[in-house]
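Worked Example 4.2. Consider the chain below.
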Amino acid sequence: MVSPLVFWIVAGITIIAALAVVNLTNLIHSALWLIVAFVGVAITYLILEAEFLAAVQIIVYAGAIAILIVFGVMLTRRGDIRESNLFNNYRLAGGLISLGLMATIVTMVVKTQWAIDVAAVPANSVGLLAQNLLGQFVIPFEIAAMLLLVALVGAIIIAKEVRD
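Applying the procedure from the previous section yields the following structure tokens:
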């Protein structure tokens, strides 16, 4: 059992990192703070005793951030990388929309009657997930992998500089 204080510390760091992602003007710094936010979410999964989700969170999103940094550098054609994030002029509108969304989510969480399940969690849940993912659902899994590969190759072709 983890102390609620640990949860609140991790939640605070995650929220601060998410705010830094939105407010920083340097694209690379925003991407690095996004890593911190994703690690905070992974730690929250660990607190909830969902080790597999935490590992997937780190593995998948670490790769995603690396690709984000590469494409961010490739697609921004400016001399000064510190001024590469052009969309920070919408802070007020984004803040109001975020507050409205947060109010909606808090309202839904407060009004929902949460049922507590007393059933035990299977001991080998990762093994069962692997059997389903690589057994019954192997075709959709491979189609999703191929779709992601095609999207990545397409993004590289679009971002590639055209030379005469």
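The mean pLDDT is 81. The chain has two domains: 1-114, 115-164. Compare this with Example 4.1 before moving on.
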